[in-house]
Amino acid sequence: MVNRGVPLASIHVGGIPVMPAFSERFDRAACAALYGLDPTRKTLLMMSGGEGLGALDVLAARLLSMGGDFQLIALAGRNEAMLDALRKLGEAHPGRMYVSGFTPHVERLMACSDLVITKPGGLTTSECLAMQVPMIVTSPIPGQEERNADYLLEQGVAMKAVDAVALEFRVRALLSDPNRLSAMRSRIAPLARPYAGRFVMDTVLDALKHTVTEKAMSSCVVVPGKRTLALVLWVALLGFFFANVEIQIEGSAGWAANLPTWRIEHHWLLDIFWGGRPMTGYHAWVFPFVALFFHLPAIFFARWSWRIEARIVACIMTFWLVEDFLWFVLNPAYGIARFDPVHVLWHKHWVGFAPTDYWTMSIAALVLFLMSRQWESGSRCSSDE
Fold first, then answer.
1. In terms of CB atoms within 10 Å, which end of the chain has fewer, N or C?
2. pLDDT tens for each residue of 85-122
3. Do 69 and 92 contact (CB within 8 A), yes or no?
4. 267 in Cβ contact with 351 (< 8 Å)
């Protein structure tokens, strides 16, 4: 793959994913009991894929005829004719053979087995390696299966039988030499990849994580995104409408001066938290109302996070800034020309051409908007496209 131009960093060798059951370790005696097998006897598992291709009955008959203290498991897959032939063969050799069609529990049969006789398909050999069972491979298809067979033979975990005679010879050799069979099994562990599926998923998720992080970081810029600009414009529109509402309510007497409501002119807490302005019954209710109004989407969609809260608070600040300024600009009794400390007595502290509150709230709102774009679930940058 490197020779064909694939970057080395993009190549990950993890094995063929197998079902999670093949990563488990089963009790041999318990599995043997499920199928009426003797866990103390050498057990051979013969299989040729889900479709039951190959003269499995002929090979099974030859092995059973050679004698010896072993038992045979034969899987016919979905080949009903082969299944019938194997069952008849099993009836002729009672106590030595277990026959089955397609089964979703091959791993349990492998747990009972000392040797698997199979075609060297990629998935089947991966399952055998995961269960750490040596193999005799037969009839490899030219190409991929031949290379699979070569690899298994080179690693010393399998033998190859080109025909029935060779198969009988290999089986006799292994049954007569248990140490050789054990040695084949001992070499399997470094080759097995029972968690290949997890490796693939972790590799893909890790790559996606880095891709998303890089994309998110590239979007974490000071320039506001389209959604943020649209949100600010919408909040400004709300401020415009509410400014006109308050003009109709208050007229030329700002800060609820002429409204029939209670009023606290002086208090040390008002100096600290309220900029020295009076507290009125009108403002005591309207400010919480606006705060609750801006939280309505979070409540309605039952979705909240610190990122969302930061954006909500930034919107509330922006709303009051726009609304308060437009109250003066649009009010016939004031206009932009009378927006100064002389005519606006309830804003007691000014810096330059604007009240101190305008500056502090503008900076706070800007910081919260930027944080809401960069801070998602406490750590990740979020795209604002």
1. C
2. 999 999 999 999 999 999 999 999 999 999 999 999 99
3. no
4. no
For 177-216, b/e burial (b = at least 16 CB within 10 A) is: eeeebeebeeebeebbbbbbbeeeeeeeeeeeeeeeeeeb
- Cβ neighbours of 174 (radius 10 Å): 20
Give me the residue label for tokens 């790559």.
Answer: 207
Mean pLDDT of 353-364: 86
Angle at 253 between CA 251 and CA 254, to 5 degrees: 100
* pLDDT, tens digit (0-9, with 9 covering 90-100), for 122-165: 999 999 999 999 999 998 889 999 999 999 999 999 999 988 89
Measuring CA to CA, how many Å separate 362 from each of 55, 260, 370? Answer: 83, 32, 12
**Distance between CA 270 and CA 322 in Å, rounded?**
22
pLDDT at residue number 278: 82
Query: Pairing relation of β-strands 158-161 and 135-138?
Result: parallel
Residue 231: CB atoms within 10 Å: 19
Give the contacts of 374 (CB within 8 A, at least 6 positions apart). 220, 381, 382
Work out the mean pLDDT of the chain and round it to a whole number: 86
Write the burial class of residue 336 (CB in 10 Å: 0-12 exposed, 13-18 middle, 19+ buried): exposed
Say how far apart CA 59 and CA 72 lie, in whole Å. Answer: 11
- How much of the chain, in percent, has pLDDT values that exceed 70? 92
| Res 52 pLDDT > 50 | no
Min mean pLDDT across 39-48, 191-200, 256-265 is at: 256-265
Compute φ and ψ for 335, nearest 5 degrees: 80, 170
